[in-house]
Design a protein that fits this description.
about 260 residues, 8-stranded mixed sheet, alpha/beta, about 40% helix
């Protein structure tokens, strides 16, 4: 199974911006184990800006683009160093892949990305993908890693895209505000009613909300790929996903043929 796992900033870090070491260690352990079992894994990881904020002891997430880019430049090094050190314990080699919106929009560059990603997988390497926040501008950027996860999943013809979030999945209402909200276990089609359930942005450490996840689902479902939204606080839930046990909200891709 070819699996793309997207982890957001709220999953990887504490509110102060420092890495949640225990969770990252568990995530790396589970991904390494799944890779040992023969699955191909691509990790789409947020966290560079937040880790830069922590490293630089800034009071909070920057609002101006140059400071965001500076924090990303510092934080990306920290993030990849942490991943490299952790995956090396399980004898897995990682590769950093930083993408920009221009890379996706240009047909030749996009083809190069697809070829590189597939060759990395053939070589047994685990790609770790993030947006190139250091060079992206507010006007020309992918914007969030839910969208990036969908782009990557389509590029490598993944079987499943897993979006780790800070909630269990898609609900009939916002579970933070409505105690009667019910989890929707399966979505076969993105209807206007489903779109209406998506709210705005999530935590102040991230950029994506449920609407970006619904848009990601549209893209991957059309490509024949399933997508799951689930809580990222327990990375071990990936075992259940691989075993076909219902978890979070599963969006069913339209398989050709």
């Amino acid at each position: 199974m070819r699996i793309v796992v997207k982890v957001g900033t709220s999953t990887l870090t504490y509110a102060a911006g420092r890495m949640n070491i225990r969770r990252v260690e568990e995530l790396v352990k589970v991904l390494s184990d799944l890779k040992n079992a023969g699955h191909e894994i691509i990790l789409v990881s947020s966290g560079a800006i937040a880790m830069g904020v922590g490293k630089l002891n800034l009071p909070g997430k920057p609002t101006d683009t140059p400071t965001k880019q500076a924090a990303a430049a510092v934080g990306q090094s920290e993030l990849m160093y942490a991943y490299d050190r952790q995956f090396a314990q399980y004898s897995h080699t990682i590769a950093q892949v930083l993408l920009s919106a221009d890379d996706i929009k240009d047909e030749d560059r996009r083809m190069n990305i697809e070829n590189t990603m597939k060759r990395l997988l053939e070589m047994g390497i685990l790609p770790i993908v993030n947006e190139n926040d250091t060079v992206a501008t507010a006007e020309i950027h992918i914007g969030d890693n839910d969208t990036l996860g969908a782009i990557v999943a389509c590029a490598v013809n993944a079987d499943i895209l897993v979006l780790f979030s800070d909630i269990e999945g898609l609900y009939t209402a916002d579970p933070r505000q409505d105690p009667d909200a019910k989890l929707i276990p399966e979505v076969m089609e993105i209807t206007p009613e489903i779109e209406a359930l998506a709210g705005g942005a999530g935590t102040d450490r991230g950029t994506g909300g449920m609407i970006t996840k619904i848009n990601a689902a549209k893209a991957v479902m059309a490509n024949g790929c399933d997508m799951i939204i689930t809580n990222g606080s327990n990375p071990g839930i990936l075992y259940d996903i691989v075993d076909g046990i219902p978890v979070g909200t599963r969006f069913i891709g339209r398989k050709n043929g």
